[in-house]
Design a protein that fits this description.
CATH architecture of the largest domain: 3-Layer(aba) Sandwich
Strand content: 5-15%
CATH class of the largest domain: Alpha Beta
Distance between the termini: 14 Å
Strand order of the largest sheet: 5-4-1-6-7-8
Shape: globular
CATH topology of the largest domain: Rossmann fold
Number of domains: 2
Protein backbone atom coordinates (compact mmCIF):
# COMPACT_ATOMS: atom_id res chain seq x y z
CA UNK A 1 0.00 0.00 0.00
CA UNK A 2 1.38 3.41 -1.02
CA UNK A 3 2.14 5.87 1.75
CA UNK A 4 -0.48 8.58 2.20
CA UNK A 5 1.04 11.92 1.18
CA UNK A 6 -1.82 14.20 0.13
CA UNK A 7 -5.20 15.28 1.49
CA UNK A 8 -7.85 16.89 -0.71
CA UNK A 9 -10.82 18.63 0.88
CA UNK A 10 -14.31 19.47 -0.19
CA UNK A 11 -15.23 22.92 1.10
CA UNK A 12 -18.86 23.34 2.17
CA UNK A 13 -19.81 21.04 5.03
CA UNK A 14 -16.21 19.90 5.56
CA UNK A 15 -14.16 23.03 6.23
CA UNK A 16 -16.84 25.69 5.90
CA UNK A 17 -20.01 25.85 8.02
CA UNK A 18 -22.08 27.38 5.24
CA UNK A 19 -25.38 25.47 5.21
CA UNK A 20 -27.27 28.09 7.30
CA UNK A 21 -26.17 30.85 4.91
CA UNK A 22 -27.14 28.79 1.86
CA UNK A 23 -30.60 28.20 3.27
CA UNK A 24 -30.88 31.91 4.12
CA UNK A 25 -30.14 33.02 0.56
CA UNK A 26 -32.84 30.59 -0.57
CA UNK A 27 -35.29 32.24 1.82
CA UNK A 28 -34.33 35.71 0.63
CA UNK A 29 -34.50 34.94 -3.09
CA UNK A 30 -37.78 33.05 -2.68
CA UNK A 31 -39.28 36.24 -1.25
CA UNK A 32 -37.61 38.45 -3.85
CA UNK A 33 -38.98 36.33 -6.71
CA UNK A 34 -42.43 36.02 -5.12
CA UNK A 35 -42.23 32.23 -4.91
CA UNK A 36 -43.36 31.82 -1.28
CA UNK A 37 -41.43 28.56 -0.93
CA UNK A 38 -41.11 26.61 2.31
CA UNK A 39 -37.35 26.27 2.55
CA UNK A 40 -36.29 23.09 4.39
CA UNK A 41 -34.57 23.22 7.76
CA UNK A 42 -30.97 22.05 8.11
CA UNK A 43 -31.96 18.53 9.29
CA UNK A 44 -34.51 18.26 6.48
CA UNK A 45 -31.99 19.32 3.86
CA UNK A 46 -29.41 16.87 5.19
CA UNK A 47 -31.90 14.01 4.94
CA UNK A 48 -32.68 14.97 1.35
CA UNK A 49 -28.98 14.88 0.52
CA UNK A 50 -28.55 11.53 2.29
CA UNK A 51 -31.41 10.16 0.20
CA UNK A 52 -29.57 11.08 -3.00
CA UNK A 53 -30.88 14.55 -3.87
CA UNK A 54 -28.12 16.54 -5.59
CA UNK A 55 -27.30 19.97 -4.17
CA UNK A 56 -24.15 20.94 -6.05
CA UNK A 57 -23.26 22.90 -8.02
CA UNK A 58 -25.44 25.66 -6.62
CA UNK A 59 -28.08 25.59 -9.35
CA UNK A 60 -28.87 22.04 -8.18
CA UNK A 61 -29.26 23.37 -4.63
CA UNK A 62 -31.90 25.85 -5.73
CA UNK A 63 -33.69 23.10 -7.66
CA UNK A 64 -33.57 20.84 -4.60
CA UNK A 65 -35.42 23.37 -2.45
CA UNK A 66 -38.10 23.99 -5.05
CA UNK A 67 -37.06 26.94 -7.24
CA UNK A 68 -37.82 25.36 -10.60
CA UNK A 69 -35.51 25.46 -13.62
CA UNK A 70 -35.90 29.12 -14.65
CA UNK A 71 -35.70 30.58 -11.17
CA UNK A 72 -32.90 28.20 -10.15
CA UNK A 73 -30.78 29.50 -13.01
CA UNK A 74 -31.61 33.11 -12.08
CA UNK A 75 -30.87 32.43 -8.40
CA UNK A 76 -27.55 30.79 -9.26
CA UNK A 77 -26.42 33.92 -11.10
CA UNK A 78 -27.44 36.09 -8.13
CA UNK A 79 -25.64 33.72 -5.75
CA UNK A 80 -22.37 34.10 -7.64
CA UNK A 81 -22.78 37.86 -7.55
CA UNK A 82 -23.63 38.47 -3.89
CA UNK A 83 -23.11 35.44 -1.66
CA UNK A 84 -19.49 35.99 -0.62
CA UNK A 85 -20.05 39.66 0.19
CA UNK A 86 -23.50 39.47 1.79
CA UNK A 87 -23.85 36.16 3.63
CA UNK A 88 -21.64 35.35 6.56
CA UNK A 89 -20.02 31.95 6.78
CA UNK A 90 -17.25 30.67 9.00
CA UNK A 91 -14.85 27.79 9.16
CA UNK A 92 -15.94 25.03 11.51
CA UNK A 93 -14.22 25.36 14.90
CA UNK A 94 -10.86 23.62 14.87
CA UNK A 95 -10.31 23.73 11.09
CA UNK A 96 -7.22 25.95 11.20
CA UNK A 97 -5.62 23.80 13.91
CA UNK A 98 -6.38 20.60 11.97
CA UNK A 99 -4.93 22.01 8.74
CA UNK A 100 -1.83 23.28 10.52
CA UNK A 101 -1.19 19.85 12.05
CA UNK A 102 -1.53 18.17 8.67
CA UNK A 103 0.80 20.73 7.08
CA UNK A 104 3.36 20.29 9.87
CA UNK A 105 3.17 16.51 9.43
CA UNK A 106 4.23 16.96 5.82
CA UNK A 107 0.97 16.36 3.96
CA UNK A 108 0.32 18.19 0.71
CA UNK A 109 -3.15 19.69 0.59
CA UNK A 110 -5.63 20.97 -1.95
CA UNK A 111 -9.31 21.91 -2.36
CA UNK A 112 -11.77 20.25 -4.74
CA UNK A 113 -15.16 21.95 -4.46
CA UNK A 114 -18.33 22.82 -6.33
CA UNK A 115 -18.17 26.27 -4.73
CA UNK A 116 -16.57 29.24 -6.53
CA UNK A 117 -13.00 30.33 -5.88
CA UNK A 118 -13.94 33.76 -4.49
CA UNK A 119 -16.03 32.12 -1.76
CA UNK A 120 -13.25 29.67 -0.94
CA UNK A 121 -10.60 32.38 -0.63
CA UNK A 122 -12.85 34.66 1.43
CA UNK A 123 -13.79 31.86 3.82
CA UNK A 124 -10.32 30.40 4.35
CA UNK A 125 -8.52 33.70 4.89
CA UNK A 126 -5.09 33.02 6.38
CA UNK A 127 -5.78 29.28 6.30
CA UNK A 128 -5.27 29.47 2.52
CA UNK A 129 -1.53 29.29 3.24
CA UNK A 130 -1.83 25.61 4.16
CA UNK A 131 -2.84 24.70 0.60
CA UNK A 132 -0.84 24.49 -2.60
CA UNK A 133 -1.62 27.84 -4.29
CA UNK A 134 -2.44 26.19 -7.62
CA UNK A 135 -4.58 23.44 -6.08
CA UNK A 136 -7.87 25.25 -5.41
CA UNK A 137 -10.04 23.35 -7.88
CA UNK A 138 -13.37 25.18 -7.84
CA UNK A 139 -16.40 25.05 -10.11
CA UNK A 140 -15.42 28.27 -11.89
CA UNK A 141 -11.77 27.33 -12.43
CA UNK A 142 -12.36 23.76 -13.64
CA UNK A 143 -14.50 24.88 -16.60
CA UNK A 144 -17.14 22.17 -16.54
CA UNK A 145 -14.95 19.33 -15.28
CA UNK A 146 -16.59 16.70 -13.11
CA UNK A 147 -15.52 16.32 -9.50
CA UNK A 148 -13.67 13.13 -10.45
CA UNK A 149 -11.77 15.05 -13.12
CA UNK A 150 -11.06 17.84 -10.61
CA UNK A 151 -9.63 15.31 -8.15
CA UNK A 152 -7.44 13.87 -10.90
CA UNK A 153 -6.24 17.38 -11.78
CA UNK A 154 -5.47 18.13 -8.12
CA UNK A 155 -3.43 14.94 -7.82
CA UNK A 156 -1.32 16.01 -10.79
CA UNK A 157 -0.79 19.49 -9.33
CA UNK A 158 0.36 18.03 -6.01
CA UNK A 159 2.63 15.56 -7.83
CA UNK A 160 1.33 12.50 -6.02
CA UNK A 161 -0.43 9.34 -7.13
CA UNK A 162 -4.08 8.38 -6.51
CA UNK A 163 -2.90 5.70 -4.08
CA UNK A 164 -1.11 8.39 -2.05
CA UNK A 165 -4.21 10.58 -1.78
CA UNK A 166 -7.37 10.79 0.33
CA UNK A 167 -10.38 13.01 -0.35
CA UNK A 168 -12.44 14.36 2.56
CA UNK A 169 -16.10 15.03 1.74
CA UNK A 170 -19.59 15.13 3.20
CA UNK A 171 -21.79 13.56 0.51
CA UNK A 172 -22.06 10.22 -1.24
CA UNK A 173 -21.34 11.89 -4.55
CA UNK A 174 -17.98 12.93 -3.03
CA UNK A 175 -17.32 9.29 -2.21
CA UNK A 176 -18.29 8.28 -5.74
CA UNK A 177 -15.98 10.88 -7.28
CA UNK A 178 -13.11 9.76 -5.05
CA UNK A 179 -13.68 6.11 -5.93
CA UNK A 180 -13.84 6.89 -9.65
CA UNK A 181 -10.57 8.83 -9.37
CA UNK A 182 -8.92 5.93 -7.54
CA UNK A 183 -8.38 7.73 -4.23
CA UNK A 184 -9.50 6.83 -0.72
CA UNK A 185 -12.38 8.67 0.90
CA UNK A 186 -13.05 9.98 4.40
CA UNK A 187 -16.55 11.22 5.16
CA UNK A 188 -17.58 13.73 7.82
CA UNK A 189 -20.83 13.31 9.73
CA UNK A 190 -21.17 16.99 10.67
CA UNK A 191 -21.64 18.21 7.09
CA UNK A 192 -24.43 18.32 4.54
CA UNK A 193 -25.20 14.72 3.69
CA UNK A 194 -23.56 11.95 5.71
CA UNK A 195 -24.06 10.66 9.24
CA UNK A 196 -22.50 8.16 11.59
CA UNK A 197 -25.23 5.77 10.43
CA UNK A 198 -23.49 5.49 7.05
CA UNK A 199 -21.50 2.54 8.33
CA UNK A 200 -20.42 1.37 4.87
CA UNK A 201 -18.13 4.40 4.67
CA UNK A 202 -15.21 5.54 6.79
CA UNK A 203 -16.77 8.40 8.80
CA UNK A 204 -15.48 10.84 11.40
CA UNK A 205 -17.77 12.96 13.55
CA UNK A 206 -15.59 15.99 14.34
CA UNK A 207 -13.05 18.21 12.61
CA UNK A 208 -10.21 17.12 14.91
CA UNK A 209 -10.80 13.48 13.99
CA UNK A 210 -9.75 14.23 10.42
CA UNK A 211 -6.16 14.77 11.54
CA UNK A 212 -6.35 11.81 13.91
CA UNK A 213 -7.56 9.46 11.18
CA UNK A 214 -5.18 10.66 8.45
CA UNK A 215 -2.08 10.66 10.66
CA UNK A 216 -2.93 7.26 12.17
CA UNK A 217 -3.42 5.75 8.75
CA UNK A 218 -0.16 7.19 7.44
CA UNK A 219 1.63 5.91 10.55
CA UNK A 220 0.19 2.42 10.07
CA UNK A 221 1.50 2.42 6.52
CA UNK A 222 4.95 3.54 7.67
CA UNK A 223 5.11 0.77 10.27
CA UNK A 224 3.98 -1.79 7.69
CA UNK A 225 6.63 -0.63 5.23
CA UNK A 226 9.36 -0.69 7.91
CA UNK A 227 8.43 -4.20 9.12
CA UNK A 228 10.85 -6.86 7.79
CA UNK A 229 9.33 -9.07 5.12
Amino acid sequence: MAKLRAVLFDMDGVLLDSLPAHLQICEDLSREYGLDLRIPSQPELKERVRSGVEVSPMEEFFLAVGFGTEFARKADAKYKEVFAQTYKTALFPGVDDMLRKLRDAGFRMGIVTSNVRANVVAALGQSMTYFHPDCICSVDTMHGATKREAITSAIAILQVTPAETIYVGDQRRDWQAARDAGVDFLGVAYGWGLSKEDTDLQIVETVSEIYTYVSARANRQRISEDRPG
